[in-house]
Design brief:
The complex is a heterodimer. Chain A is α/β, with parallel strands linked by helices. In chain A, 45% of the residues lie in helices and 14% in strands. In chain A, the strands form 6 sheets. A 5-stranded mixed sheet of chain A has the order 2-1-3-15-6. Chain B folds into 2 domains: 57 residues, no CATH class; 238 residues, MetI-like (MetI-like fold, Orthogonal Bundle). Chain B has 14 helices and 2 strands. The N terminus of chain B is likely disordered. Classes of the chains: A alpha/beta, B mainly alpha. The interface between A and B is large, with 59 and 52 residues.
């Protein structure tokens, strides 16, 4: 039988083909009724052999690529049967998260171990993208009691351990010792922001710098560092899951920050990275991560001082948030890969390795028994960061756990600090947004 | 004679049918058989040539489009293995949120400013380059060069220029006793900054296309107008500009589509999208930024698609009528 392939038939066939292809490609997520997180209670690794090769995704926090390579070489010398492929999966925490979630959606190309920041791991938990580490911690006998408790507890949820600390940091108060001396100020960080407000005019008059203080870049992690201002005045982004950013205390704290830029005009707002601005001499002081310490000490041409974060009128201690990144193991890879990843995770968190990592970057050593003598002899400023750990506070849920909250906080901060927006109205608007994020994206997935 | 593939196979054009009616029945049947064989062979050649391209377009353009429409009906967190069907809820959420007005407004301002700026400045540059002076070859290359540069590289360099702390612009302003504006932190200035850089990068494209249009204008008409006493301005407004309308129309469509899809400069210069979040960038931020709302992001992409479709249809339907093609 002859087939008359006319245009109409061709188009019909093409349409049918495209339709079939479309239907076949409508894979994506399964559209089962959504619900709470249903991770397995424990994962059994009995009889599992570690994989011969695994991928480790890192953004090399604190310019740690060299020290990471060095740790991998040492690991492979100890375990020659396991090859670790170090992959640069982004330039920052957001880029690595983007790549990981894209791989999750594509269900391919997942790493066995990845760097996850303080604001991302909880989302991976909600999406069931990472596994609880408890059974691996038991099987490999991690010395969990030797880890710094506050850093480990940051990754606990629903009685399980979802990650372990890696490049952990806190903000530090950095100051230009030469400027402080020229202004006749004591060689220390201010105890409170009120004290610094008294110092600032003297600094500005004598230093020649554009600003006495540089607020951290808003596009960076404004929500992180502003917790210091909020907590000092008795406020916060949230208490538990209650959003409190519009409380009188929170508004007062952010009003003071706005006044430092506009009314009193001694502070500026960094455009990209306040550590770079400070090191370049644009400001006499700033707040930045401990992970910036080595970079600042290397590039600054003046004497750098570091101190605890200033408190406020309501609190002078417990005003410093923890932050930085941990390491987690994805759920979408084989048990063999997960086991090999856990072995490498155990190795990099061993005391001598966390000390080496800390020496290279300025991040906190995550083990209590890490011998920091040599590191502190070379970089004594790290001791201030380590001492400050004792007075840190776990971050507000709104900042750490709500998807997109960091961006919304940064936008609100921009409105207050660069457009002189009304603080109370801006915080009321932010509260509505954050509550919406909680109600829509988090609450339905939480266990009652 | 090669049969026209656009004609309906098996049905001859009217004039051919008339001729065939006069032919003896046997000859017509033989012709039909011969035509059918040739037509079939040609059609397979056509398929062999066209199918790979059609398949590529289907897989990489229409399939994602259909998938995207499907995803826009889901409440799906990127990275999650499960999602909930929510129908049109994502569209309702977008159009009822306060962000919709901001995003659509930013998109409108960015598109109008960049398309208008690129075309007007491109035309002025083209007029300058069309004059017979020394150095025009170098000037043409210099004007066109930014268009072929990487958007990421351009964004990074301009970011340094605009940096209020230690940028070149800040240094110049301080020399004049002025403080640098907060180009990066102030949302309104951020949008202006990105528009300036986008226009700088793309005006070379408009200039080169306008220049080609100017050089193809009939010289006799211009000479006749000059002999009739028309000045430069009159000749430009009454002759050059109308005759350039096909070029202008082409640039209007391509520039508008390109502007609505602008991404790299916005991503590099204002990663937070504060004040610069156009529809396409908002779609990116919602899925891949920090929110991970893949379904909501897909809905924004569909809105952008519909807007692009409407603009293109309106342009073809109404603006093209004004175009002078002769």
């Amino acid at each position: 039988m002859a087939i008359n392939l006319d245009r109409r038939l061709f188009l019909s066939l093409a349409g049918a083909g495209a339709g079939a292809a479309a239907l076949s490609a409508c894979g994506g997520p399964s559209t089962a009724v959504g619900g709470t997180v249903t991770q397995a209670a424990t994962i059994n690794f009995d009889g599992v052999k570690p994989a011969a090769s695994i991928d480790f995704w890192s953004n090399h926090p604190g310019k740690s690529q060299d020290v990471e390579k060095s740790m991998i070489e040492k690991f492979q010398a100890k375990y020659p049967e396991i090859k670790i492929n170090l992959i640069t999966a982004g330039a920052n925490y957001e880029e690595i998260a983007q790549k990981f979630q894209t791989a999750q959606a594509a269900k391919s190309g997942l790493p066995a171990l990845l760097v996850l920041s303080d604001v991302w791991w909880f989302r991976y938990y909600l999406n069931e993208s990472i596994i609880p580490l408890d059974s691996l911690i038991t099987k490999l006998d991690f010395k969990l009691d030797d880890f710094r408790t506050s850093l480990v507890d940051d990754y606990k949820y629903d009685t399980k351990q979802w990650a372990l600390p890696y490049g952990r940091s806190t903000p530090l108060f950095y100051y230009n010792k030469d400027h402080f001396a020229a202004a006749g100020l004591p060689d220390r960080a201010p105890a409170t922001w009120q004290e610094f407000a008294q110092w600032a005019p003297k600094l500005k008059a004598s230093s020649g710098a554009q600003y006495a203080f540089m607020h951290p870049a808003l596009a960076g992690y404004a929500g992180w560092t502003l917790q210091n201002n909020l907590w000092g005045e008795g406020g916060g982004w949230s208490k538990g899951w209650d959003i409190t950013c519009d409380s009188a205390e929170s508004v007062a704290a952010l009003q003071a920050a706005q006044d430092s830029v506009y009314k009193d005009a001694w502070a500026g707002v960094s455009s990209k990275e306040s550590a770079d601005d400070f090191a370049a001499g644009l400001a006499s002081a700033t707040l930045s991560s401990t992970g910036s310490l080595i970079g600042i000490l290397t590039s600054a041409s003046f004497n750098v001082g570091v101190g605890f974060l200033p408190g406020g009128s309501k609190a002078t201690s417990g005003v410093c948030p923890t932050g930085g990144a941990g390491l987690g193991i994805p759920s979408g890879v084989s048990k063999e890969e997960q086991l090999a990843a856990a072995m490498f995770l155990q190795f990099v968190t061993e005391p001598e390795n966390t000390a080496a990592f800390s020496a290279a970057t300025g991040y906190m050593p995550t083990r209590k028994s890490a011998d920091m003598t040599a590191v502190l002899a070379k970089t004594p400023q790290i001791k201030t960061a380590m001492d400050q750990l004792a007075v840190t506070k776990v971050q507000d849920n709104a900042r750490a756990f709500l998807p997109g909250a960091d961006q919304e906080m940064a936008k609100a901060a921009a409105k207050i600090l660069t457009q002189q927006g009304d603080v109370k109205a801006t915080m009321a608007e932010l509260k509505t947004t954050l509550e919406g994020l909680y109600t829509k994206d988090v609450k339905p997935k939480l266990k009652a | 004679m090669t049969p026209q593939l656009t004609a309906k196979p098996g049905r001859a054009p009217a004039h051919t049918a008339t001729v065939r009616a006069k032919e003896p029945g046997g000859a017509t049947a033989r012709n039909r058989k011969r035509w059918s064989v040739r037509k079939r062979r040609d059609f397979f050649v056509f398929l062999a040539l066209a199918l790979p391209n059609l398949a590529l377009i289907a897989v990489f353009t229409y399939l994602p489009l259909i998938n995207n429409i499907y995803y826009s009906t889901l409440n799906w967190t990127l990275g999650s293995a499960s999602a909930t069907v929510v129908g049109l809820d994502n569209y309702v959420t977008f159009f009822t949120s306060p962000d919709a007005g901001k995003v659509l407004g930013t998109t409108a301002i960015f598109t109008i400013a960049t398309v208008g700026g690129s075309m007007v400045l491109g035309l002025l540059v083209a007029l300058a380059l069309n004059s017979k002076v020394h150095g025009t070859t170098f000037a043409r290359a210099a004007v066109f060069a930014p268009y072929v540069l990487s958007g990421v590289g351009v964004g990074l360099v301009w970011l340094f220029i605009f940096d209020p702390g230690y940028g070149v612009l800040s240094w110049l302003l301080r020399g004049l006793g002025q403080q640098s504006p907060q180009w990066i932190n102030d949302p309104q200035l951020s949008l202006l900054m990105v528009i300036i850089v986008y226009v700088w990068k793309n005006l070379g494209y408009c200039a080169v296309v306008f220049l080609a249009g100017l050089q193809s204008l009939p010289k006799d008409v211009m000479e006749a107008a000059a002999l009739d006493g028309a000045g430069n301005t009159r000749r430009f407004l009454s002759i050059s500009l109308p005759l350039l309308s096909p070029t202008t129309f082409f640039l209007l469509i391509t520039s508008m589509i390109s502007s609505l899809q602008a991404f790299d400069l916005i991503r590099i210069m204002t990663p937070l999208g504060n004040g610069t979040s156009t529809l396409i960038y908002e779609s990116y931020l919602q899925a891949f930024g920090a929110y991970n709302r893949a379904g909501y992001s897909a809905a924004i992409s569909v809105v952008l698609f519909v807007i692009l479709l409407i603009i293109t249809v309106l342009q073809l339907r109404f603006v093209e009528r004004k175009v002078h093609y002769s």
